[in-house]
Amino acid sequence: MGSNMAEQHPVGFQWVLEAKERGAKFIHVDPRFTRTSAMADLHVPIRAGTDIAFLGGIVNYILEHDAWFEDYVRHYTNAPVIIKREFHDTEDQGSYADVPPDLRPAGLFSGWNPDDLAYNVDTWGYAGTSVELGAGKSEQQADVSGEQAHGAHGMELEHGEPPELDNTMRDHHCVLQLVRRHFARYTPEVVAGICGCSPDHLIAVAQALCENSGRERTSAIAYSVGWTHHTISVQNIRAASIVQLLLGNIGRPGGGLLALRGHANIQGSTDIPTLYNILPGYIPMPHPVSHPTLDHFVELNGPSTGAWGNLKSYMVSLMKAWWGEAATPENDFCFDHLPCINGDHSHYAMMMRALDGGLKGMFCVGQNPTVGSANTKLMRLALAKVDWLVIRDFQPTETATFWKDSPEHDSGEVRTEDIQTEVFFLPCAAHTEKDGCFTNTQRLLQWHEQACEPKDDCRSDLHWVYYLGKAIREKLRGSEDPADRAILELTWDYPVKGAHREPDAEAVLREINGTGPDGNLLASYEELKDDGSTTCGSWIHCGIYGDGVNKPARKRPRSEQNWIAQEWGWSWPKDVRILYNRASADPAGRPWSERKRYVWWDPDQGQWASLGDSPDFPGDKSPDFVPDSDAKALEAISGDKPFILHPDGRAWMYAPSGIVDGPLPTHYEPQESPFKNVLYRQQKNPTRQLFSRPENPYNPSGSDPGADVFPFVLSTYRLTEHHTAGGMSRSVPYLAELAPEMFCEVSPALAQERGLTHGDWATIVTARAAIEARVLVTQRIKPLTVHGRTTHLVGVPFHWGGVGIVTGDSGNELLSVALDNNAHIAEYKVATCDIRPGRRPRGRGRLELVEEYRRRAGIAS
Amino acid sequence: MAVPQRLPPVVRQLASDRLGLARAAQTKRSRQLKARIVDADRVVQSICPYCAVGCGQRVYVKDERVIQIEGDPDSPVSRGRLCPKGAASEALVNSPKRESRVKYRRAGSSDWEYISLEQATDMIAERFIKSRRESWEQEDDEGHPLHRTLGIHFLGGATLDSEENYLIKKFFCAAGALSIENQARI
Ligand code: SF4
């Protein structure tokens, strides 16, 4: 679901086809019929943005038909846990008193505060935990989310046990019953009405999943940005995880909830983040108020039970890796050197800041926001307010040349000489011109070896940041300013090699791995200490260079090992290939079935054994291990609880902490939708993040006046032949030739309704922009019947822009910035639009067309 | 059985190449053609730079230049296969559009000019320091520590190596330039 795997992950898709050849059933649920659907046993088209309704329908089916995997659910999930009795679900009336009476429930959880547009999460916790502890520890604030949201890593529990449990799972307040009631109205008929599919389709999918799950069988769900690009992105994935937990499909071979990620190292750049809100290994960035000292930071971010119970060791080892000798117990290991976050400092928030004149400098490294980000005009207007801009790429991108050729130049809105931004273009090295690791979508780090030197000024990003850092340190040398100490005390000396004096990537990898007191390379994060005697750049990667071996560079041919292929590359943590794989055995440590044997307890050896994977569990902890009452960290997790990152070792169907928009997924309509929410009075995700300003107008939606000006659903997507914003594909002759021109996909019915001709031009309009595209009239796009009304989809790939071998209008011009507040990710996958035949007007006419639409829709200019 | 090449093609085909797809279809020229990679000086193992499937690649180098990139049959991930993007990555590396020189656009100027890499690094370092100083926030209104600048924004990382991301995170954090972001958010 939410993925077009055949076209976006083509070579990975071979495994789906191979499974199919071996008898697996393959189902594709997605708004469009794609090459993925073409290979599926069943394709179910649903309206973009209604995945939670569909998944909720599956949860409902599983519970109604008693098809859940009881032993797995009871022992490995939080289904038996009693939640605070004060908690009110979205199904309960009366939590939103201001809304006029209506038959639909309000659709809000307890704790909603309309003034802050945020929840007070006090009532969401496990019963018997104190308010502070139950809600997680750091106070939720409207402007702090992601890893900093009220205890993303869990709450404080004594000896790793929830205080109140009902193992019969019948208590009115236990998680299983809450889940049951929450989804009770997501019946096949209701779901079909929302999604535009038939009730039989939903039943067929649910049945297939149930039949193929249990002791003997497992089912996998794969998803991609079709789920994450929404104002309900995190909850889409949560909904699927509830399905998979009920069916016992996590931590077992052939199971899982698999994120198919888009770029060579997008997984790696999340694990070792170029992200503002986390440190390497998903450690939160400090908050100025809640975390004045290291001890406060640790206390408020790491529950004392589970793998996060050793947060202090991970954190101290990280700071020792960064500040070396300067980091001492007396100065909190340089905790004060870390910058603090107290709000959303993510990409979109920063671009708004730029628009307001608050951003001075910007780096774009292998990224092209004037094509790739939502509302690209806003991006360009923002860049024009920045003092200096550095672009590193293969060739100047649209972002690098925004000052001389943009749609706003054409419409006369901007003039080159007025744009005061200084721009530096620095050519990059290709992957063949440097050593390093990419992390694939399965957390597998694979080394790519340098084949030759980059020419002229082309350099790796390692080279670039290392020498930029050196230059800055050199200029600051001798500075007495306390603000400069963190830079000057940084460990910033790496061995160099080759003609360009390239820093040695292996030396960096060794720093990431970490060392013990005598400088030896560590083998596992379990060896990290909180006294400053160990270093480690990323705790989850500890062991990647264990025994002095560059493990991602291991390339033992597949023909010489079994299917797990553990001697090819390395995956975090501890080279575990299937996460939480202790769940592949029953509570007593025996395989659930012979067919699904993977990791099991070997009583003779007193060890976990496996088919060739590393057990994701302390190797000698027996299944009947019961922790002492004062046990901490991993010691506090019982032998039959596989989910060791959680303080209770259980997987969370119900998320008592960490999520800003509710402990259970709930169907809300997208920011822009032609339909009203039939399940709740709350139309859209109440915590979604909006930027209401003239540069970012939203189309009216649902039953708002003017919504009919933009009657169609718009969705953006990618093609096999291109790569995101085109910087690595529109400049490649073969790829440019394979997919030369921007187009849009519409159904024959919509083509007829709007007079669109296959192969001719169409203009697509939203409150943000008007773009043109060639029309592809195709049966692949099916009109759907939603709440008895026909709805049409306009499909738009987003790869094109103004520079490259092939050029065209960019799909992201059309989108607004409306974000999920957990992840600050934009709703690229659904908006509303109008479509009309013919090319868009040139010059000022383009702007006037958009303004005319805005007027008609009642949007103030 | 080797059939003499001087016999007419139809005889050759009937004798040893029923489908006419092998030797019978060859001319003298095509017989002498060699795969591009035969002359390679060396081959190194690599990983496709596009999507996160992480297909294995073999990179063929001749005279210190990449001449061909093929799928790595040893890879348990991809078993030697590449999709159109991965298969075109030689043309990415050797793209006619690729720029190998540093360019600089002055404020208000309508054109690029060329500067040296050293000069660019120096100029960027100057600007980084100046912008950082001008937008430095030591503490918030109530005296809580911030140690940061929100005047500098970094975007990128999903196409970079983990080691590169690590050094970027490390340096920018130490500089208080905390707003580093990448495609994972986008
Ligand atoms: S070859 Fe294609 S499928 Fe494989 S990693 Fe590259 S882009 Fe992805």
Describe the structure.
The complex is a heterodimer of chains A (861) and B (186). Chain A has 861 residues and is α/β, with parallel strands linked by helices. Among the domains of chain A are: 1-68 and 194-262 and 579-620 and 634-654, Dimethylsulfoxide Reductase, domain 2 (3-Layer(aba) Sandwich), CATH 3.40.228.10; 689-857, Barwin-like endoglucanases, CATH 2.40.40. In chain A, β3 and β4 form a beta hairpin. In chain A, 62% of the residues are buried. Chain B folds into three domains: 1-33, no CATH class; 36-94, ADC-like domains (N-terminal domain of TfIIb, Single Sheet), CATH 2.20.25.90; 117-185, no CATH class. Chain B is built from six helices and nine strands. The longest helix of chain B is centred in the C-terminal third of the chain and has 18 residues, at 117-134. The mean pLDDT of chain B is 93. Classes of the chains: A alpha/beta (861), B alpha+beta (186). The complex binds iron/sulfur cluster (SF4). Iron/sulfur cluster sits between chains B (48, 50-51, 53-55, 78, 82-83, 85-86) and A (9-11).
